Amino acid sequence: MPNASSPNPLDRRSIEALVRETLAKQKGAAPVATIRSHGRTGRAAVLERKERLRLREFPLRPIREDEILLRVEACGICGTDIHCYRNDPFGLCPVVLGHEGTGEVLEVGKRVQTDNVGKPVRVGDKLVTSLFETSEECMVAKYNPLKANLCYDLKLYGLLPDEPENHFNGYFGEYLIIRPGSSFFGVNDLSENLRVLIEPAAVVCHALDRARRSGATLNFRSRVVVQGCGPIGLMMIAALRTFGINTIIAIDGNDDRLAWAARLGADHGLNYRRLGSPEAVAAEVQSLTKGIGAHYAFQVTGIPEAAANLLHCVRRGGGVCELGHFVDAGEAAFNPHRDFCQKEITLTGSWAYNSWEYPNAYHFLERAEKIGLPVSELITHRFPLSRIQEAFDTVLAQKGIKVIVQNDG
Predict the structure, then answer these.
(1) Considering Cα of 303, then 308, then 313, then 315, what sign does the dihedral take?
(2) What is the pLDDT along the chain (409 residues), one digit of tens a residue?
């Protein structure tokens, strides 16, 4: 009998690692289930109620023929996760959060052959997931598939209700089961940092596409404002610079985040706290735009007053894209005559993304890195799953930029 204090060289995780290593050497191997799930357990961080996270152990059911089992590698904490933690606005508790995630394929159901762009899926591949397919009952998605992101029952891993037979519905756990109807993509050639950033990159790529299609001026000579330099705002700045915008003005109340904005392509940074009033901010924007205001502006804060104030920074005939309010934060006051009618402002909303925009986000991240924008460095803090509460506390304290939770199992 081995010494109880000695490590067992053939424990569960060692066996899994050995199996994955062996399979990786078998080039061209068929995608088959390789590790039996029955009887296995895994940990997941459950948001049981508002501001109550608990790491729990759950049984891991065997996957079905049309499913994939991932071992989660890492997942970023999104602003939406923070809203859920604070207020449970969607009524999901208890729920396993986490949607900015990536994982390694442990098992592939025999009916699964390729990802959503036709790449073969095999054990050991790195995957990211996007939206579920929408239901046939949704009239918005049914009659306009290009607007599937506006479906009333849009589904996303990490924002799914808990299920009695499967608790691995979000990336804040050791495993994730990808179910039928999901969109998923192989991303073996991206670093872990960039894989985690694909989901927020899809948000800004969708917003940029919405802005371009709005009819407002958005080209090489445009002068563009980005209000709010959190993770999405900074990613928006990087997307605009990658797209070729030459003059980008960042607005935020935090000098450290404005310094990040400069690293990611902003030409000017305005600290609204230092300027003191919305009128002073608008005047400063006008001084940087030949006295007439920005061609276009992206509103990336969750503050209603900020959304209204940004309208004063845009010139006649300009446009504004709102992508900062993913939850209801209240009302904003504006003057319809002065802010919209007289200036012929084009106001565009941007809501999430479509699954087919993930490849676009993938190429944006690749291109941004090639031209020297340090997007992967947006990940400033890492915590193991066992310390997920510390990770959330770090975000709540507004420390760093992007905080990720890594699987320590």
Answers:
(1) positive
(2) 333 333 344 444 444 444 444 444 444 433 333 334 456 999 999 999 999 999 999 999 999 999 999 999 999 999 999 999 999 998 999 999 999 999 999 999 999 999 999 999 999 999 999 987 677 778 887 788 788 888 888 889 999 989 999 999 999 999 999 999 899 999 999 999 999 999 999 999 999 999 999 887 788 999 999 999 999 999 999 999 999 999 999 999 999 999 999 999 999 999 999 999 999 999 999 999 999 999 999 999 989 999 999 999 999 999 999 999 888 889 989 889 998 899 999 999 999 999 989 999 999 999 999 999 999 999 999 999 999 999 999 999 999 999 999 998 7
Give dist(CA 34, CA 23) in Å, integer: 9
Question: What would the two tokens of residue 96 be?
Answer: 């396993």
Query: What domains lie within the chain, and their CATH numbers?
Result: 12-193+376-406 (3.90.180.10), 202-349 (3.40.50.720)
